[in-house]
Request: fold
Amino acid sequence: MGRVKIKGAKNACLPMMAASLLTPESVVLEDVPELEDVRTMSRLLKALGVEIFRDRKNERIVLNSRRLITSTAPFGPVRRMRASFLVMGPLLAREGHSRVSFPGGCAIGTRPIDLHLKGLELMGAQFTMDEGYIEAETPCLHGATVYLDYPSVGATENILMAAVLARGTTVIENAAAEPEVVDLANFLNSLGARIIGAGTPLIRVEGVTSLKGGRYRVIPDRIEAGTFMIAAAITGGDIILENVISEHLTAVIAKLQETGTLVEEPQKGMLRVRSRGRPVPVDIKTLPYPGFPTDLQPQFMALLSLAFGTSVISETVFEKRFMHVAEMARMGAKIRIEERTAIVTGQPLLQGAAVRAPDLRGGAALVLSALAARGISEIRGVEHIRRGYSRLIGRLRSLGGRVYLLPS
Ligand code: EPZ
Reply:
């Protein structure tokens, strides 16, 4: 039986790093993993004038935004990582101005930002667009009631960060309730913000005049945890995960148990996952939290491609999150796409093959398929995987996986 310690959540620490722009005092974030996306966000914040000290050994990062030199976010990081757009709200709140290049869509869909802009506009921001940049100005952000047509995680976070320094009260209706949104709100409150309702569809923020500095530990990464849980299920394994919050994984635990996988909580903060052979097929529908997370859809599809029958996967969050299907087919998976639905006919075996990671979670899913497949697989596009998983190869090997990094 192998053991793996889950690291801090990428999708919690990225907005917190952006939120450090809201205070001139130092902010210390603990359990910040070594990820490409963390490096990208650091580069972006440094270009704005933020002083950053990275203590890799202790997975700590210290940020100080006392002296910002510009409120224009450089093109590079924003194109590379959609989360860069999360500096829009904090810069508007702190400087009354921000200029950010339109975030690129990526492999999983167009991913607009209309809800981000709708909320900030209601709070007093005026926008102009030129040369692929969005420029936002405001004499002073004021409270507003913002209804989100979709419980967008990023839009909720951008509006939340702008609201903490806005004049008056902001209410976000149909807000995202993801644990990472709650963690951001808890972090902001630890700096002196006044947010209530995070984790529910109704969030209320009383604006304050300033925030102080502070120290905060990021929650464990539920998507990394789910990835390792599925790794155990797909390989007939038996592993213990440490540093997990099982309440953040209820949908994933339930669906894994429906496949016949044993999932137990030997003690708080720990999960044991044991495969009981070939999985039973189950239907999956991705939904906003607490529904089944879209970020584990590709990984779960890998598991179901080996099931005893047919599974139906509905991807309701993103319109194109099936780029991994063609690659899985090269390994013998039988998957048919109809719009946002994938019909997975489970096979007894997968064959090793040369495949290419289309994006972060699709790449992780290909690693899982390759761990279970017969024969050798070569996976290109490892840079996608490095965006969201720290030392994945070494940690899988310590669990018994035969995974090696080839010289590029
Ligand atoms: C966050 O992305 C996560 N990223 C994603 O994780 C995750 O898949 C997603 O939330 C959903 O849970 C980070 O937190 C850094 P959304 P985000 O805004 O904020 C539509 C990973 O693998 N939408 O909730 O971009 C959008 O098109 C990444 O770690 C609008 O229509 O997700 C999409 O269909 C991938 N208008 C849906 O909402 C908007 O203004 C969900 O997007 C904003 C979003």
Remarks:
- The domain at 222-398 is CATH 3.65.10.10 (UDP-n-acetylglucosamine1-carboxyvinyl-transferase; Chain).
- The radius of gyration is 21 Å.
